[in-house]
């Protein structure tokens, strides 16, 4: 399943999109925050969101690109910019989501300790009400649980979305030949 | 590097890396990496999570030596490696190399004569194990910064087995058998080319004979 998923990703389009990105720096980013100024040597695909309609049928929803330890860029299924998601180091349990014009799209509250051991706590919630469950948590939904088991240790989390989708977040962790620079970011007012 | 017929001197022995091992550090338990050598360097690194949705790696590391005089394990140093943090230890060795693209932070070094068996204990307490890494290097005795006259001459201790590192096992130090053949050395006999690395990387044994 995993190899099949990788074969469906168009790495060339991902690289082109990342290289050509121009994003307004979210207004809550201060001069002390490094989210939009210090980057990994290479961009990597951290996760892919799959929306399953059956055990072996899914569509690719979002592709998450890690650019530094606190910041990711989400691309949509057409490999276009969708959101910049980030946390600030002194508030690591809040992930902010902004569009490329500096407008807030939403935020997530996350408890990463839920990934470390079996805990009866919520892993992550989105401001729109979506709840995200760790991969070890059994679902009462038969299809969701079948898909959860099928992805095994490649699954980070899953969510039964408010809009009815069954979304699964697959660990990819693969570098691509692209690097973010400060040229990809625009200060407010520029 | 020494060749057959050499008289052992620091210059002839050289400072080559003769054994090396590296891998992600394992998780779910205490793990122990044992190194039997004269000159060695070992490093643990905790990296960066693969996504913003995961915890920073955190690993507790401890460095121990087996004391010949006490016939017991002696704790030397402890450290908790958080995100993008390394801990390196060395024994009678001048090197602190960048391996696997990781810049090491030297935490402790041992330059005594009471130990030739060492252990790096680690336990992953958070994060992804494949964002962590261990590397152990064993060098020729010529690298020994405490090089002394006991290594001169054609006859020298040599390893019984062609092995210097036991990587990441769950066998604790108290349960670790000291009579395993790879922890034995023998003295005598001429060095043959195929045995050179076994001879030039260990000077003594679990107990001095």
Structure, explained:
Chain A is mainly beta. Chain A contains 3 helices and 12 strands. Chain A has a 10-stranded antiparallel barrel with strand order 2-3-4-5-6-7-8-9-10-11. Chain A starts with a helix and ends with a strand. Chain B has 209 residues and is mainly beta. Chain B is built from 2 helices and 12 strands. In chain B, the strands form 3 sheets. A 5-stranded mixed sheet of chain B has the order 1-9-3-6-7, with no helix packed on it. At the A-B interface, strand 2, strand 5 and strand 11 of A face loops of B.
Short description:
The complex is a heterodimer of chains A (190) and B (209). By secondary structure, chain A is mostly beta strands.
List the helices and strands and how they pair.
The complex is a heterodimer of chains A (190) and B (209).
Chain A: H1 2-8, H2 11-20, E1 23-24, E2 44-54, E3 57-68, E4 71-75, E5 81-88, E6 91-98, E7 104-110, E8 124-126, E9 131-134, H3 142-151, E10 155-160, E11 166-175, E12 185-186
Parallel strand pairs in A: 1-12
Antiparallel strand pairs in A: 2-3, 2-11, 3-4, 4-5, 5-6, 6-7, 7-8, 8-9, 9-10, 10-11
Chain B: H1 10-13, E1 17-23, E2 31-36, E3 39-46, E4 58-67, E5 72-81, E6 85-91, E7 106-110, E8 117-126, E9 132-139, E10 157-159, E11 165-169, E12 185-187, H2 196-199
Parallel strand pairs in B: 6-7
Antiparallel strand pairs in B: 1-9, 2-8, 2-11, 3-6, 3-9, 4-5, 4-8, 10-12
